[in-house]
Each structure stands twice: as C-alpha cells, then as structure tokens.
Specification:
The protein has two helices and 19 strands. It has 315 residues and is mainly β. The strands form five sheets. An eight-stranded antiparallel β-barrel has the order 12-13-14-15-16-17-18-19. The longest helix is centred in the N-terminal third of the chain and has 30 residues. It is elongated, with a radius of gyration of 40 Å.
Length: 315
C-alpha cells in the first residue's frame, strides 16, 4: 500500500491533540481526587463556648457583664418571696393594717421579696426605694417565712467600700457667743459598714459685736470681724449600719485658720443620715470644735458649736 504523507500528518496532529486533552483532564482532576476532608475551622474567641478546662472538668467562665464589679452598696436583704394571688388586683398599703393608706394596686402573679412579717401582713419590697404591706389572703408564700419579724428600720445594704461626697451649710456659734453662716464639704470612705473615714473643709465669717474685754492693761471695748477656715479628719461610727435611717457619732482632729494664725483643734458630735434612695441621703448633725487662741499667756479655749444639714451621695 502506498504511504500518504499528508494523511499521516493529519493522524499525528489528532493524536497530539488527544494527548494534550487527556493531560489537561488529568491535571484538573488530580486536586479533586487527592483533596482530603477539610480541617475544622478554628473558632473565634467570641464564638467559643465560655468554659475552661481545669483538670479535665469544664468550668463555666463568667460573662463580661458578670466580671464588672458590683456597685456599692450591695443589697443584704432577705431573698424570701411571695406571689400575689388576688383577683384581679392586689391592694398594697403603707402599713400593716386596712386603715393605712393605699400605696398601689398590683396584678396577680407578680412576685416580690418579703422584708418583714407581722401577724397576717407581709412587708414587701416594690422597688429599690419603695416598700409596702399586703394581707396574707392576697399572696402565697414561696419560701418559709416563719423566721421573719417586723423591724421598724431593717438592715438593707452593705456599704463597705463605698465613697461619699457631701456639701453642707448651717450655723456656727463662735465661742458660743456669735452666730454665723457656715459652708463646707466632705469626702468619706466606708472602711467597714460601721466605720467611715472622712475629710472635710469649712468656711465661716465671724462677726461678734463689741464687748468689754479684760487684759493686763485694764478694760477695753473690742469687736471681732474675721474670716475663719477650718479642716479636719474624722472617724464616724454608725450605730445602725446599712439601714435607711442611720444614727452616728464622730470625732476627729484638724486645724482652724483665723487672724493669720493656725490653731490645732478637736471636734466631736453626733447626727443622723436618712437615705432617700440607695445612693442619696440627707444628713443633719451637731458638732463641737475646741481650740485655743490668743497670744502667749492670754490664750483662751474656744468652744464652738456647729449645726449643719447636708446632701450626701454614694459612689
């Protein structure tokens, strides 16, 4: 048979094309055939389960909101509760009896913490700053309340670690003979629930009318008109800590600056704080300041009385 060169070259071209096509298919198919199962993706920190292994045991980690320090004061009141069962509304009064004023009307199935109990009346906490009394027929005990009893001023909070800031005004009796306005402020810190450390500064303008003063040179008529600045460091002891109404006593040392001289002083007094909310209080007190003044042998002891009313803030 006669060999046709042209026909042979056509067959050769077709064979090359077929070889190239097979190579391309094999190349494309190889990664797919050799691909293994994908490794699990590493979760982000925000997607991980909030647990941490400690000796093989999963320990839940607190959420970010739980890590934030709880603000003082923290509640220490009872966690015993009642559920309202009256239909359709439940009357809450201001005291343990039907003769007291109505505080509000609350729906069925609402749950409240019980503060105290007297006879057939429960003292329930309606909010952080409000409470009321409800009759036993209108609620159901969810806990054993046999140990609760009525307390006129129950302990509600622990204020340890809280700071206090106050501004005050009042009257200042210089040497118990002259009355003047006094203005001041104080910063405090609760070391314990009963013990509070305070630093304060005050100002007053003493005006005392002319009076007869005896001296080495005889009698003279003298008047006094001067500004006085005094500051002190005090320790305050609360008699009923953590309550809404807190009586206290306090004492401290400081210095009185007047007429170009600085005189060391002592002070002591007592008062009461009334918390109108968890972080706001009104405070009134009476305090006596004692210090010596005057030159040389003519020095005298001054007994000064201060009456003040202040607004106090906890943070």
């Amino acid at each position: 048979m006669r060999h046709d060169p042209h026909h042979s070259s056509i067959h050769h071209a077709h064979a090359v094309r077929a070889l190239l096509l097979a190579t391309t298919i094999a190349t494309c198919a190889t990664p797919a055939l050799s691909q293994t199962a994908p490794e699990p993706a590493v979760p982000l920190a925000s997607d991980r389960d909030s647990t941490q292994s400690v000796e093989g045991t999963a320990v839940p980690m607190p959420a970010v909101s739980d890590l934030a320090a709880a603000p003082n004061p923290s509640p220490v009141s009872s966690s015993k509760k009642v559920r309202l069962i009256g239909k359709p509304q439940n009357v809450v009064r201001s005291g343990p009896g039907s003769g007291f004023a109505i505080v509000g009307v609350y729906p069925k199935d609402a749950t409240y913490t019980v503060i105290a109990k007297t006879d057939e009346w429960y003292n329930i906490r309606l909010s952080e700053t409000e409470s009321g009394w409800i009759h036993a027929s209108l609620c159901k005990e969810l806990d054993d309340l046999s140990g609760l009893k009525y307390q006129p001023n129950p302990r509600l909070y622990s204020r340890t670690g809280s700071y206090t800031l106050a501004g005050y005004s009042g009257a200042y009796a210089y040497d118990r003979k002259s009355n003047s306005l006094v203005l001041g402020g104080r910063l405090g810190y609760y070391v314990f629930d009963r013990l509070r450390a305070e630093a304060g500064v005050s100002w007053t303008h003493v005006r005392r009318p002319a009076e007869i003063v005896e001296s080495l040179f005889g009698l003279s008529l003298e008047a006094e008109d001067f500004h006085m600045l005094f500051y002190q460091m005090d320790a305050v002891w609360e008699l009923l800590p953590g309550r809404q109404m807190v009586p206290f006593v306090g004492a401290g040392v400081g210095s009185t600056i007047m007429l170009g001289r600085s005189e060391p002083s002592l002070n002591f007094g007592a008062g009461t704080m009334l918390f109108v909310s968890k972080r706001t209080a009104m405070r009134w007190e009476v305090r006596e300041y004692r210090f010596d003044s005057g030159p040389g042998a003519a020095r005298i002891t001054n007994n000064n009385v201060e009456f003040t009313l202040s607004s106090e803030f906890l943070f």
